[in-house]
Write a structure and sequence with these properties.
The chain has helices at about 5-25, 40-55, 70-85, 100-105, 120-125, 135-145, 165-175, 190-195, 255-260, 270-290, and strands at about 5, 30-35, 60-65, 90, 155-160, 180-185, 200-205, 225, 230-240, 240-250, 265. It is of the alpha/beta class. It has 2 domains: about 25-110, 3-Layer(aba) Sandwich (Rossmann fold), CATH 3.40.50; about 135-270, 3-Layer(aba) Sandwich (Rossmann fold). The strands form 3 sheets. It has a 6-stranded parallel sheet. The protein has a 3-stranded parallel sheet with strand order 3-2-4, with helices on both faces. It has a two-stranded antiparallel sheet with strand order 9-10. Strand 5, helix 7 (about 165-175) and strand 6 (about 180-185) form a beta-alpha-beta unit.
């Protein structure tokens, strides 16, 4: 059996540290989460964030905007939150309706409260090696690897996916840790060769169970980090001679096929997802501390 990289367990340890910090704060940090529309998956993610935040003593305002809100109305709301001194951090839950510009919306957030690290200002600071906030999923991935003492310096790492949210910032963080990083995307011709030669494979492509044993070498020395969260319908057990469809969450890696061929692997759910939430609130606490430093 491989080492299972248990994000829930690590999140619990991070929560203890954050809770001790927050207990000493007065007033308490506050995160404002803005969601546009009623996307079920988005709502579920927001509830997870709210639950975790409140468990460590952070106040969480869950602000729901109607799907037909205009861009100017949404930006006005964000500016109000920017001006509210009780709000330490602001995130806009993605995705947004197609009528709204993600770029304009995100860049309306005060960079000092942009705890997702997605504004142009914070993205540039991150690239320059002076990050105000590290994007939560990228931070969570690195913390998960380091928690289990998996070496990054001189490690050959394949990052599958180059999104602004996950792939690109994760690759940059790994390079800063001294890893030898190769980023693969849909047009990369020799992805399987690259992954087989890698010590660590990080998969963030949004395609369920795409990564099979063909991408893995045979000596059980590799670590696989699965960032994918894909909802799909599978057939459950029969009842009254009828097959029952059920919705399940699967990763970008075929866990059952790959797990016995690697040294360590993160599960879905329970791996990177919990780490992303924990990392977000590490950023919230950092934002609070930066905003309350005596002048």
């Amino acid at each position: 059996m491989p080492l299972i990289l248990d994000g829930k367990k690590v999140r619990g340890e991070i929560a203890k540290t954050l809770r001790r910090k927050v207990e000493a704060f007065s007033p308490k940090p506050k995160l404002a989460i803005v969601q546009v529309g009623t996307n079920k998956e988005s709502s579920a993610y927001v509830r997870q964030k709210k639950k975790f935040g409140e468990s460590i003593g952070v106040l969480v305002d869950y602000l729901k905007a109607p799907e037909f809100i205009t861009e100017s109305e949404l930006i006005l709301k964000l500016k109000e939150l920017n001006a509210d001194s009780s709000v330490s951090g602001i995130i806009v839950q993605l995705p947004l309706p197609s009528a709204l510009s993600v770029e304009k919306t995100i860049n309306a957030i005060d960079p000092e409260k942009d705890v997702d690290g997605l504004t142009a200002v914070n993205e540039q600071l991150f690239k320059e090696g002076k990050p105000r906030f590290i994007p939560a999923t990228a931070r969570g991935i690195i913390e998960l690897l380091e928690w289990y003492h998996l070496p990054l310096f001189d490690a050959k790492v394949a990052v599958l996916g180059r999104s602004k949210l996950v792939g690109a910032p994760t690759a940059l963080l790994l390079k800063k840790k001294g890893a030898l990083v190769t980023v693969c995307h849909s047009k990369t011709p020799n992805t399987k060769t690259i992954t087989r030669r890698s010590d660590i494979i990080i998969v963030a492509i949004g395609k369920p169970k795409l990564i099979t044993a063909e991408y893995i070498r045979r000596n059980r020395t590799q670590t696989v980090i699965d960032v994918g969260i894909n909802a799909r319908t599978e057939v459950g057990e029969a009842k009254l001679l009828e097959e029952i469809p059920r919705s399940v969450i699967v990763g970008d890696v075929d866990f059952d096929e790959v797990k016995d061929k690697v040294a360590a692997i993160s599960p879905v759910p329970g791996g990177v997802g919990p780490m992303t939430v924990a990392a977000l609130f590490e950023n919230v606490v950092s934002a609070y501390e930066m905003q309350t430093v005596p002048v």
